[in-house]
């Protein structure tokens, strides 16, 4: 259970890091369009 929770936490953290990186690298408009789908 603990290992499973840790794995999920790592996945969520990875997703957050990717989103933040994309948002920082791309221009604001492209970033907003990408995040909004």
What is the tally of beta strands? Answer: 0
The helix content, as a percent range, equals over 70%
State the end-to-end CA separation: 33 Å
What value does the average pLDDT take? 81
Counted by DSSP, the helix tally is 2
For the biggest sheet, the summary is:
none
Helix and strand run: HH
Q: Rg to the nearest angstrom?
A: 13 Å
Shape: elongated
Q: What ranges have pLDDT less than 50 throughout 5 or more consecutive residues?
A: none
Strand content: under 5%
Q: What's the domain count?
A: 1
Give a description of the structure.
The chain is mainly α. The protein has one domain. Helices cover 89% and strands 0% of the residues. The protein is built from two helices and no strands. α1 (2-25) runs antiparallel to α2 (28-36). The radius of gyration is 13 Å and the shape is elongated. 0% of the residues are buried. The mean pLDDT is 81.
Characteristics:
37 residues; mainly alpha; 89% helix
SSE arrangement:
Elements: H1 2-25, H2 28-36
Helix pairs in contact: 1-2
Short description:
With 37 residues, the protein is mainly alpha-helical. It has helices at 2-25, 28-36. The chain crosses the membrane at residues 12-35.
């Amino acid at each position: 259970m603990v290992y499973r929770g840790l794995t999920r936490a790592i996945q969520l953290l990875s997703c957050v890091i990717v989103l933040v990186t994309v948002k920082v690298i791309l221009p604001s408009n492209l970033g907003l369009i990408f995040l909004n789908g």
